[in-house]
Amino acid sequence: MVQPRPTGGVAGHHGGVEPQAHVSVHAPRLLTGTAAEPALDHAMPRPMSAVPDPALVVAIDCEVPGAVRWQLEAGEFDDVMCGEIHDRVRDLVTSLGLPATNP
User: Residue 43 — φ and ψ, nearest 5°?
Assistant: First the structure.
């Protein structure tokens, strides 16, 4: 879920229709050493209703009404999946006209 920041830019939050009871070990592992690592949301996953009026929702490997849906080709949490998500995020950032970084 993405919300505009009052100071500019956007903030990303993880969550779900039925959020996990703990923070996934996969996202930190996949982002370690990248420019995206400092932006990682370390808070507990929250229900989608906890983020009022998100500007954008990305649903990964699931259906969420009104969300941008990403059906990943990679099935394992590995470098291939990391690359696939990286490419999709880069394309999303470009399509939204946001400044790109090079994670």
Answer: -70, 160
